[in-house]
Fold each of these.
Amino acid sequence: MITIGDMVLSRGAGDQAFSVSLPVLRLEAGQVVAVTGPSGCGKSTLVEGLGLILTPRSLGQYELLGQDITDLVRAPDAARDTQLAHLRSQHLGFVPQTGGVLPYLTAGQNILLQARIQGQSTQPPWFTDAIVRLGIEALLERYPRELSVGQRQRVSFLRAVAHRPAILLADEPTAALDPHHAASLFEVMLEIAREANIAMVVVSHEWDLIDSFALTRLQARSVSPSQMEFVTT
Ligand SMILES: Nc1ncnc2c1ncn2[C@@H]1O[C@H](COP(=O)(O)OP(=O)(O)OP(=O)(O)O)[C@@H](O)[C@H]1O
């Protein structure tokens, strides 16, 4: 579904230069990978690179759904940017740390926005079921300001998967919740992603859940003070 090889991403310049490398990542449909490592090790940078937001400094291979897009990702110009934006909106879903819901749309409108942009007008049974499992069926008419942080995060998650992307990238999607609610939301997210066959890359500190779900880990390893490498364990 997705194969990435020899991706290097960099941030800052001079003394502040910092780089993250990913020797290899293969993801199958419905597979969940947990990105783990200490604060500042480059987890968000990695997610932005995987999500075609940050242009890599170098790249060996990027294959998405059987399509080799290495050149496109490696050197985007204006025309290629449009192609990348199209691939992102069609095949990728994002749950940012901060939620990312639009304040002037209701929860229901937020959730269906991306799917509508893709021209999808009907929702499959798994989606209706997901609304119930996330416990947000009574909240769909509310605006984000009328929701709790946890409810907003549930909406944000469903918004990111409603168009049924191939890959969901979630950057600490439960960070704002207390451990109990974080664990239960994490569990529901994993179940929904797996049942919908959506591959998921999730930055998380939910160590127990990562172990109990036997998730593959992408673990940060220090190569030098200014260089980290993410390896599959
Ligand atoms: N826009 C930027 N310009 C320059 N340096 C940056 C930028 N964003 C992040 N960095 C630096 O890059 C490194 C990696 O940051 P990143 O946010 O990817 O880490 P993280 O593992 O996600 O951290 P956390 O767990 O605290 O969210 C850090 O040293 C950070 O200071």
Amino acid sequence: MGDMYSAYIQSTEHRPNFSTFVEVDEIPIIDLSETSQENLVSKIGKACEKWGFFQVINHGVPKDLIIKVENEAKKFFELSMEEKMKLKRDVFNATGYYDAEHTKKTRDWKEVFDFLVKDGIQIPSSDDPHDLGLCTQTNHWPQCLPHFREIMEEYSGKLEKLSYKLLELISLSLGLAGDKFLDCFKNQISLTRLNYYPPCPFPDLALGVGPHRDPCVLSVVVQDDTGGLQVKKNLVGGWVPVRPIPGAFVVNLGDIFQVWSNDKYESAEHRVVLNSQKERFSYPFFLFPGPHIMVKPAEELVSEKDPAKYKAYNFGKYYANRTHADFTKQEDEGKEIHNFKILD
Ligand SMILES: O=C(O)CCC(=O)C(=O)O
Ligand SMILES: [Fe+2]
């Protein structure tokens, strides 16, 4: 294997082992058109407690819109590197095209394109608490694809709406008011991502995305029929595939919900394995709060018997640290929520 690939090689413990297949219950599938809200909330609560992952069907996002997103994403990633590099993401503006993301210091075998739901929002320029500087985040669009922007904006608008519905149901499942967290999203920095995983000549050594937990509130993802997304399930001792279901969205809880729930729910670890023959596309929407929000366990879930398990942290500063770490991954992994854990 030449040096040009060495950045992609996972350490032995993280290499996917294709020979072990874990036979377990399937990740729950939840029908959002179910008329009894009580049943729906109960099913979602169980899925969150057991997996932190579920799939939703009958979610109200039109199928033809998803097909348009798929077509535009394919056209985008087929553009020449020169065209894509015109939209390259940098440390100050974390939107646009990127092909060098690292998860836990190892390069992911993928290309991404990111755009914000709210164009022009400001986030802290650094994680230094004394630095009051802000940087404005602006979306970049490929000029050579005339319908791209309109389709992507429509998609992210629909996913934002679906995320609020899921937020409400998950909040109710924790015994909280359905709108408990809604105010956190006024200046949200939610992001839609297009992921392209090219076929990989050494799928047993590299990963499309290394093992990680999402730093957001929740993620809603469309995946194509290639498969590759897997969830870590310690109880069964391995990685469980999230089977592609045509037209379904995969939903997973992020770190913020883990903190809000005071560890009642877990932000599950997941990864993407590669395929030597087939490319893969996926389109996640990451629901993030505004940068001013202090993330801490919901007071309704904290008591003398069940004290807060996390110290409050400022989301904007946390996000700035993670974004910065993305560009300096070789030395710094960035903060994770366990850094705010209150140890007993
Ligand atoms: O490609 C996928 O299915 C999920 C990717 C993912 O986990 C992420 O981008 O955070
Ligand atoms: Fe993820």
